[in-house]
Write a structure and sequence with these properties.
This protein is mainly α. Helix content is about 80%, strand content about 0%.
Length: about 120
């Protein structure tokens, strides 16, 4: 049992929390160090739909859907905050790579369409 009045226990708990935070930072840096990891994290953030406002008009079913979307969005915002805190340069690289991949996909679709039309 933790005694908040015991300075030694408080220091020990603070040390454990600091170690846990460092482990999260190290894990995020390791994932973001690879192109595959950045692509995976970008996909997760996309699933979280962090850019939406989350509002869903309607009755009780819409409210449930809105609550569900708000939960997803909340997780994405938390993840993005951790990424920006612990791996800001890799977070920016992830965004650049995602934009580049989107452009490459659009160009490939355009080229395929041009070949079909020809």
């Amino acid at each position: 049992m933790h005694d908040p009045n015991d300075a030694r226990q408080v220091r020990g708990a603070e040390q454990l929390e600091k170690q846990a935070q460092q482990r999260v930072a190290d894990d995020l840096k390791a994932v973001m160090a690879t192109e595959q990891g950045r692509r995976f994290v970008h996909g997760l953030l996309g699933l979280c739909d962090i850019r939406s406002d989350g509002y869903v008009p309607g009755g009780i079913e819409a409210q449930r859907h809105q609550d569900y979307r708000a939960g997803r969005r909340s997780i994405g915002i938390e993840l993005l905050g951790e990424l920006e805190r612990h791996a800001p340069e890799m977070t920016e690289l992830m965004s650049v790579e995602a934009r580049f991949n989107d452009i490459r996909t659009e160009l490939a679709a355009w080229a395929a369409e041009e070949q079909t039309d020809a």
